[in-house]
Amino acid sequence: MAGSNNQKSKKSSFFRILIVFLTFVFGLSLILSYLASFISPDKIWIVAFFGISYPFLLLINLLFFLYWLLLRKLYFIIPLLIILIGWIHLRSLIGVHKSMKKVDTTQLIKVISYNVRNFDLYNYKKGWELNFEKRNKIFDLIKKESANIICFQEFCYDATGKFSTLDTLIKFQKAIYFQTEYTNDPKSVNKFGVATFSKYPIIHKGKIIFTPKTNNVCIFSDVIINKDTVRIYNVHFESIKLSKEDIDLAEDLSHINKPEGNKVELKEKSVRLLKRLKNAFIKRAPQARLVANSIDKCKYPIILCGDFNDTPTSYVYHLVSSRLIDSFVESGRGFGQTYIGLLPTFRIDYIFYSNEFKSLAFQTIHNNLSDHYPIISDIKKK
Question: Residue 180's domain is classified under what CATH number?
Fold first, then answer.
């Protein structure tokens, strides 16, 4: 009888030691996720993986906090303090603002940022008819919102006119001022890149080329708003370039436990996915430095839209937004996720602005017209 009690006591002691150990391990992991904002992935890439894991590490630490609190053990202080240290990251994850009251809309600058995935040009599941259907629904959305400034990433233009995008947008949106930059072969019939449409006159256009071989780019348009010059940045940072197999692996991990699952093949696919993430982390760092350098030199008020392909705990986000304000943090609600595909809790699309502005409202439109949700911000000059 005594031996049985001793055995139970040893198991209980081992379990408690294990939980204490895990509390410290995941607490340290959460701290490393905070450091991801300050450490460039092209210097130490491993930290970026902690940064992208922030929402999950936060949840685990919250569970440890509740566990120790229920047991009335002082260990609850460890996860609590670590969570509070990262308060600024928590604010960028969850918006807590109320709905905007009715205001004078005459002075508002309505901004849309939207990665349209080439208007679904390459979705052949139902043939070309589906492509036109998705494209037209995106057009209807843009027309309904009637924004002053629209920034598209993964914008496509068909030079043959069979899959019209540019001309149609100019016509019904009445955004006669626009800037496009295509990153693929200029001789190609289908062109892909970014596009900015404005109801305000564009007096100057510029671009930031990352590298000659990348499909990503940043453009900026100087527009006149109420006699003031405002610079509009539209950026698309390095994509992860996931294949269909990568997405299937990430989104449907349940097949791992199936007897027919090939564990060797699964391991190879997992390693390939991690390599893609690593390479994208590394490539985005110098791209972000180029954009941040341009922002530092800019003498005008700024509005920046973009698909960063990175989260608010990333080096890219921290670097680019150091002089800017995140519209979601200022006026958003909920989790604000903008990506529908791999790990759909991620917010990787943003609208920023400089101190001359304030955001009165932020909205994420949940639809399935792309693998990104469009985001909208109502901005006003202070």
Answer: 3.60.10.10
Are 72 and 166 in a shared domain?
no
Given a contact cutoff of 8 angstroms between Cβ atoms, the answer to whether 119 and 131 are in contact is yes
| Residue 159 placed within a domain | yes
- Supply φ then ψ for residue 330, to 5 degrees: -75, -35
Beta bridge partners of 230: 223
At 112-170, the pLDDT tens digits run 999 999 888 766 555 555 578 888 899 999 999 999 999 999 999 887 777 778 888 87
pTM: 0.90
Residue 287 contacts residue 238 (beta carbons within 8 Å): yes
User: Looking at residue 317, what is its pLDDT?
Assistant: 98
